[in-house]
């Protein structure tokens, strides 16, 4: 068995790992590098393999840092099947179409500026035609824990990773042993989705390490802070901005706001879900209640429910989005992107960040180099659309909403898998070092931190 780490090695984005065994070349994910120009420039580099030689892609979930280079892979010659769960297939197609749209817009903007300088600009990584060709290659697996034969010697099983709707940890069984790829492993006791399934015993384990250096706050403590941010902003005529990933986090936030509203604990306000992608994804969630946990199925069985209740407004168009900042204050505005790297949240930050009565509640991971990370780290001013904006709004971070496992969950999951070979992926460098030390201390294993483009043979 040969493994090449083609992304998410000593970083948290660009997940992509090539496994070669028994005559097959299989990709585990094919994600975008995100978080600043230096990382994003990596997306244009050639793949460290021939895309035409890849037999299949096994997709853990729909986030762009795990799916976002799939159309590029197709553009460069891949034509095999992309296996994933049904919710992942449906949501990934939405995410990739949105990604292509944004890239085409950005490329057009860069081209206009370049022409004025007498220069040329890079084209988009891919366009909608590449996304449509990619969409034809998706093969939905029939739920979790069903074995799929890839050839006579190799099969795979998708186990519930508990990260987002339809997410999976992927087991590869070969004549040379079993490999398990965590994808992004989920937190426990999250709204809507089930907890991660226990892993099977394996020979080789590739495990994500996003929060490998810390324990999350409890969900109870997180909800106290969530409620506090609302109570300290909304009654005082301030807007509360919630930068949110369109997939999972936006739906979880709506779930918790619905519970507050239903129990009369939500101050009078309007709630705007200001993201066309989040709105579309929310509709997909409604089609897969069988993937919810028991509590989620109960809460969503009634009407109203978390995606349809009185204060909630879906703002689909640009004009509707602009009207939010013209309206009376005292609103909750949920908008993408989750790390403030683009999207409608940038406009809302420009209008509200300087306002002392407003607030910004971060409910997701903020990667190094992003605008969100600079705000979380306490910047006095940030640059938005070429303008220096004072950071006067109150800022909260609540990592209990994280859909990633923390250190205790990761350690327990590794212990259950009992691997002979352990590789740490999908983490920042300092986090990986701290997590590796804790694994050695608590589990008596000797993990290897995956290096970019490193190939190992087992």
Shape: globular
Q: Ranges with pLDDT <50 over ≥5 residues?
A: none
Instruction: Provide the residue-averaged pLDDT.
Output: 95
Strand content: 15-25%
Distance between the termini: 5 Å
Treating each run of at least 4 consecutive H or I residues as one helix, how many helices? Answer: 14
- Total strand count, please? 22
Largest beta sheet: what is the strand line-up?
Answer: 6-5-4-3-2-1-22
Going by helix content, strand content and strand pairing, the class is: alpha/beta
Secondary structure: helix percent? 25-40%
Largest sheet properties: 7 strands, mixed
| Radius of gyration, taken over Cα atoms and rounded to an integer in Å | 22 Å
Explain what this protein looks like in three dimensions.
It is a single chain. The protein is α/β, with parallel strands linked by helices. Helices cover 32% and strands 21% of the residues. It contains 14 helices and 22 strands. The protein has helices at residues 37-40, 64-67, 70-75, 86-116, 128-135, 219-233, 249-262, 276-285, 294-300, 318-324, 344-352, 371-376, 407-417, 429-443; strands spanning 2-7, 16-21, 24-28, 56-58, 82-85, 138-141, 147-149, 155-160, 168-174, 177-181, 204-208, 240-243, 271-274, 312-314, 332-335, 359-362, 381-384, 387-390, 394-397, 421-425, 448-449, 455-457. The strands form four sheets. Strands 6-5-4-3-2-1-22 form a seven-stranded mixed sheet. The protein has a seven-stranded mixed sheet with strand order 7-8-9-10-11-20-21, covered by helices on one side. A hairpin with a 5-residue loop joins strand 7 (147-149) and strand 8. Helix 13 crosses helix 14. The longest helix is centred in the N-terminal third of the chain and has 31 residues, at 86-116. The radius of gyration is 22 Å and the shape is globular. It starts with a strand and ends with a strand. The model has no long low-confidence stretch (mean pLDDT 95).
């Amino acid at each position: 068995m040969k493994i090449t780490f083609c992304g998410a090695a000593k970083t948290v984005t660009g997940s992509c790992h090539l496994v070669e065994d028994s005559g097959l070349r299989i990709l585990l994910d094919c994600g975008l590098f995100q978080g600043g120009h230096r990382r994003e420039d990596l997306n244009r580099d050639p793949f460290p393999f021939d895309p035409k030689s890849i037999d299949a892609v096994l997709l853990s979930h729909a986030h762009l840092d795990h799916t976002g280079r799939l159309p590029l892979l197709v553009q460069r010659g891949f034509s095999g099947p992309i296996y994933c769960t049904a919710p992942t297939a449906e949501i990934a197609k939405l995410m990739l179409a949105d990604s292509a749209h944004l890239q085409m817009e950005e490329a057009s903007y860069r081209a206009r500026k370049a022409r004025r300088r007498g220069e040329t600009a890079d084209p988009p990584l891919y366009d909608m035609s590449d996304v449509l060709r990619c969409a034809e290659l998706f093969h939905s697996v029939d739920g979790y824990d069903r074995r799929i034969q890839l050839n006579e010697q190799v099969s795979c099983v998708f186990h519930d990773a508990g990260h987002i709707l339809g997410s999976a940890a992927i087991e590869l069984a070969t004549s040379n042993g079993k490999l398990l790829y965590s994808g992004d492993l989920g937190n426990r006791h999250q709204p809507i989705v089930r907890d991660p399934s226990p892993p099977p015993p394996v020979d080789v384990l590739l495990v994500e390490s996003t929060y490998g250096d810390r324990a999350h706050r409890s969900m109870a403590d997180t909800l106290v802070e969530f409620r506090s941010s609302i109570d300290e902003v909304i009654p005082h005529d301030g807007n509360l901005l919630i930068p949110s990933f369109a997939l999972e986090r936006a739906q979880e936030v709506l779930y918790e706001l619905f519970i507050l509203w239903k129990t009369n604990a939500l101050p009078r306000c309007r709630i705007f879900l200001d993201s066309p992608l989040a709105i579309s994804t929310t509709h997909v969630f409604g089609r897969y209640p069988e993937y919810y946990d028991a509590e989620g199925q109960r809460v969503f069985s009634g009407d109203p429910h978390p995606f349809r209740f009185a204060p909630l407004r879906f703002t689909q168009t640009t004009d509707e989005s602009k009207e939010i900042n013209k309206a009376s204050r005292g609103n909750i505005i949920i908008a993408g992107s989750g790390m403030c790297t683009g999207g409608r949240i940038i406009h809302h930050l420009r209008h509200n960040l300087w306002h002392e009565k407003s607030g910004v509640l971060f409910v997701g991971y903020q990667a190094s180099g992003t605008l969100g990370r600079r705000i979380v780290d306490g910047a006095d001013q940030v640059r938005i659309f070429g303008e220096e904006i004072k950071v006067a709004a109150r800022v909260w971070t609540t990592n209990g909403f994280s859909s990633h496992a923390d250190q205790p969950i990761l350690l327990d999951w590794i212990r259950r898998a009992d691997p002979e070979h352990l590789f740490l992926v999908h983490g920042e460098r300092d986090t990986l070092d701290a997590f590796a030390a804790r694994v050695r201390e608590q589990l008596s294993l000797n993990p290897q931190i995956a290096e970019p483009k490193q190939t190992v043979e087992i």
